[in-house]
Amino acid sequence: MKRIVKQVICYIYLPYIYKAYRNALKYGFRYPFMVHTRKQLIDLVEKNKQILEIGPFDIPFLKGSMVKYFDVLDQKQLKERAIKMNRNPNGVPYIDYVSSIGDLSIVTTEKFTSVVSSHVIEHQVDLIRHLKDVSNLLNVGGKYYCIVPDKQFCFDALIPESNLAEVIVAHVEHRERHQLRSVIEHRCLTVHNNPWRHLFGLHGGSKYNFKNEIESAINEFNISTDYIDVHAWYFTVLSFENIIMSLFESGYIDMEIDMIYPTAPGQYEFFVIFKKCNSS
Question: What is the average per-residue pLDDT within 231-246?
């Protein structure tokens, strides 16, 4: 029995330990421990300088006079949404910048040392534009702290991962809304959100009644004039790193990966820190 337990532990943790040392060798031994929780990531943010948090909803990571908030909904709308979702409306902060389409370019009056977002980047229909907009908000040397879902361990497990060509095409097409494909994928092909079950290949099945689900997704896409809350991109740690490195090396973006922390066992998200390299 002990032998089986040891084998299971090795199966779970050895890949994680390998990625930790790979990171240390690649990015340098700048941090004494692996970052494997949200709090540990947020602890790295410089709190005494200007910060923009994107999408705080009712649980902002950061508070204080140095923090500003951006969202697609204003404070009143977010409170109404929180009530509908049985969450805490009193936790919703005042939203300094509001854009119903998530347009960060409306922020024109100030620059920031840090930008923070959680489960935001995968929703951006034009990923390159999003990264360019964030870069325009940062001082040179500023950092963008991202919490990103790992498709291998969340409800996106059965959906193929995104690739570089798709990201570039979305930018060239100046995409401003989600594709029908994304709506169908999210409504019909998503599964459970238990990372441990996904770790052992127990993904479960997608929706049973495909015909009704597909028709509902198509109808939602056709009649909706507002933002549809679905994922545009599906990343693993490796695919995300490769895409971002390629975008940086080919000149599409001027932020590079300063550090990337792999998905910890039992979690469904990884952490990325971008750094702005030069002025726009």
Answer: 96
User: Using only C-alpha atoms, what is the Rg of the chain?
Assistant: 19
Which tokens go with 130? 């999003």
CA-CA distance, 256 to 263, in Å (whole number)?
20
Contact 237, 260 (CB under 8 A): yes
* Tens digits of residue pLDDT in 83-93: 999 999 999 99
Nearest to 146 by CA among 252, 230, 241: 241
**What are the pLDDT digits (tens) for 177-219?**
999 999 999 999 999 999 999 988 899 876 666 788 899 999 9
Q: Which residues pair with 260 in a beta bridge?
A: 272
Q: Which residues contact 44 (CB under 8 A, 6 or more apart)?
A: 31, 35, 145, 273
Whether the Cβ atoms of residue 106 and residue 97 lie closer than 8 Å to each other = yes
Among candidate residues 119, 110, 95, 158, the one with its CA nearest the CA of residue 38: 119
Any idea of the CA torsion for 170, 258, 134, 163, to the nearest 10 degrees? 10
Tokens of 39: 């709090």
Q: How does strand 112-118 pair with strand 138-149?
A: parallel
